[in-house]
Amino acid sequence: MKRWIKMLPLLAAILSMTVVAKAADKPSVIRFVVPGYVPEKASPTQLLFTVVWEQGLLQQEFAKDGIKIERILTKQAGPGVNEAFANGKADFGQCGDFPLTVGKAGGLKTKLILGQENGSTTYIIARSGTGIRTIQDLRGKRIGYQKGTNSQPAIIKILALNGLTLNDIRSVNVTVADGTAALVAGTVDALLSGYDRPLVHQGVAVDVYNNAKQDYDSRGKTGLIVSEEFAAKYPDITKRLVKVFLRAGYYASQEKNRAALNATRAKLGANYTQAVQDWVGQDLKVKFNPLLKKSTVDSYKNLQQFALKNGLIRQGFNVDTWVDTRFQDAALAELGLQNYWDR
Amino acid sequence: MDLDHKGLNGQIINDQIMNKNITDRFQWKDRLLGLILPVALLFAWQGLVNLKLYSDLILVPPLKVVGTLVYLAGTGELTTHILISLQRVLTGFLIGASSGFLLGLLMGLSATINRSLGPFIKALKQVPEFAWMPMIILVFGMDELAKDVFIAIGAFYPMVFNTYQGVSGVPHKYQELARVFDFKNIRFLQKVVLPSALPSILTGLRLSIGLSWMFVVGAELFGTESGIGYMMYSGREMFQIDVVIAGLVVIGAIGFIMNALLKVVENRVLVWNVSVEGGQG
Predict the structure, then answer these.
(1) Using 50, 70 and 90 to split pLDDT, how confident is the model at A186?
(2) B1: which DSSP letter?
(3) Domain ranges for chain A
(4) What is the pLDDT of residue A17?
(5) Mean pLDDT of chain A
(6) Could you give the ipTM of this predicted complex?
(7) Residue A113: helix, strand or coil by DSSP?
(8) Distance of CA B230 to CAs A99, A144, B86, B224, Å?
């Protein structure tokens, strides 16, 4: 009996360790960073996250576990997402493929676990009265765009298609919000923008160009990343989060939801008509195919080569080992959606 | 008469030199002491990285920063950015310091001008320099002129206040002597006011150029594709934190060198003045 009593502290220690281990099976909070330059709203380019957030899908999924969802909005767009991961302030994040590539090339310990939206159209708008009507007219003009975001490769590609380079224009590094003010003030002549172009709607600016007719892969896309540490520590939680985003992707891929999606986009600060026009001729099932399929991985490889060639990143990385499809495949199977999207 | 002029100026300069000899004496011991903190910080920095107490993606190891500096110097990128920044500093400094000097001089010489402009300038000084930036962008756009104006604002204040202090603080005995010698206007300025105010003016110049160098980084955060500030900002957006830290090192080093050089010039000018005016003995 005395022997048993002596062993009690040891048993208590084992029991407490088990409790700690059990507690470590799940985090108390999931921190999700996403670009958001409209006050308290995600950027209009982050539609799937908004669908998930507005419908409370993440909260519903993890409420029973007592896991809170913390949304971190960064006005710095993609570069801000990278900084949040570098600071250890985020577990999951979503932004453009270019900042994701830049972050990984910079050494961020992340895994690309799911695609989001494919073929985001880039628009170039010019202040009314500048006389800018074509890409050729941009020669020598001050063009605003934010470096480190999808706008950077976009402008290089658009100029190249028209026989120009960055040396032919005067680049002005501005966020979308600052760029809008700069265009009005006349400190930039033209601006790269997403589909939400309030200045065009107000007649202050005019559309010059958009790349909507290019194929989905060569336009910008967005992706979902997780920190390596989180994915290794909480694989089941990671899979469940991916499952939530697959459900959102499934919702967004259906033609019957087009109007509702456009209404959501309009609420993110866009003009409803512009949101509708932006998707004319766009196949939602292709646009919201979230799978990290071979063509998607190849487009990330091409983007990396493009970035290296243009001196946008100094070192490359292995895209194949960065992409982790385990969570996507497991979640697809659980949802029975293995054959829904093209691979 | 000339000898008398020299005697007056010599006395002014003598007083200055005595003060400077006491305050500005740099000993090797002091310099070594000054190195202790930076070296300790360098070790602490490497230690934090080695112990993995902080992400090495943010706190990039010192050796990697050195490697980045070598790489940037090798590509010529660093030299280009430094030269462009220095060019901007020079332009902004010349605008800000010259206008600051003129205004400070006028305020020091004329109580009326001082009473009418002094409170306004002091009130403007309360506006943090970076708070000017949105207005500058709106008024001057994002071109070089906006950067020059921003840097000039930084250069202006130390110059105007130090010049005013120096000019208004000409000792009464010098003014009395000048009256005896019947010095008027330019001659009074040349022989009494400026020599007497020189240490203060030189301090103003040194602070002014130092602030210009600091402000160039702020000026290059918007609407530019060149300069050290741009290099750092771009490094942040392209997640090249080594470039950001390399930029910090370069800014610190150049600022330090500029300050040290101006200090030497300051000392030399004062000594030169003394020897020319024969006031040493």
Answers:
(1) confident
(2) -
(3) 27-119+221-335, 123-210
(4) 43
(5) 89
(6) 0.74
(7) strand
(8) 18, 15, 13, 7
Task: Please check the confidence at residue B71 and state whether its pLDDT lies above 70.
Answer: yes
* Interchain contact, A142 vs B223, CB within 8 Å: yes
Tell me, what amino acid is at A177?
A: A
Integer Cα distance of B121 and B102 in angstroms: 14
What the block records as the tokens of A52 is: 């998930």
CA angle A324, A325, A326 (to 5 degrees): 95
Q: Give the CATH number of the domain where residue B131 resides.
A: 1.10.3720.10
**CA–CA separation, A313 vs B213, rounded Å?**
28
Neighbouring C-beta atoms of residue B216, cutoff 10 Å: 27
Disruptive mutation site among A74, A95, A141, A147 for chain B (greatest number of B CBs within 10 Å): A147
Tell me the mean pLDDT in the region A65-79. Answer: 92
Q: Which amino acid is at A188?
A: V
pLDDT in tens, B194-204: 888 888 999 99
Give the pLDDT score at B177.
72
Q: How confident is the model at residue B21 (pLDDT cuts 50, 70, 90)?
A: low
Give which of A331, A325, A324, A326 is closest to A111, Cα–Cα.
Answer: A324
- At which residue do the structure tokens 């507005």 appear? A54
Residue A253 has pLDDT above 60, yes or no: yes
What is the arrangement of strands in the sheet containing A142-145, beginning at the earlier edge strand?
A170-173, A142-145, A190-193, A123-127, A205-210
* Average pLDDT score over residue span A274-299: 94
Of B20-29, B91-100, B176-185, the range with the highest mean pLDDT is B91-100
Fold equal for A27-119+221-335 and A123-210? yes
| Identity of the residue in B141, B225, B236 whose CB atom sits nearest the CB atom of A79 | B236
The reported pLDDT for the residue numbered B150 is 93
> Which residues on adjacent β-strands are paired with residue A94?
A224
Instruction: Please say whether the structural domain A123-210 has been given the CATH code 3.20.20.220.
Output: no
Task: Using pLDDT thresholds of 50, 70 and 90, give the confidence band for residue A16.
Answer: very low
What residues of B are in the A interface, CB distance below 8 Å? 55, 57-58, 137-138, 141-142, 222-225, 230, 233-234, 236-241
Task: List for chain A the helix, strand, coil content (%; round to 5).
Answer: 50, 15, 35
Task: Give the nearest partner residue to A147 out of B222, B223, B234, using CB atoms.
Answer: B234
Residues in A closer than 8 angstroms to B225, CB to CB, are 170-171, 173
Exposed, middle or buried: residue B219 (CB in 10 Å: 0-12, 13-18, 19+)?
A: buried
Q: What is the pLDDT of residue B277?
A: 45
Q: Is the pLDDT of residue B46 over 90?
A: no
Cβ neighbours around A135 below 10 Å, total: 19
What CATH architecture applies to the domain A27-119+221-335? Answer: 3-Layer(aba) Sandwich (3.40)
Alpha carbon separation from B226 to A60, B22, B216 (Å, rounded): 49, 43, 11
DSSP lists the bridge partners of residue A31 as: A70
Cα-atom radius of gyration of chain A, to the nearest Å? 22
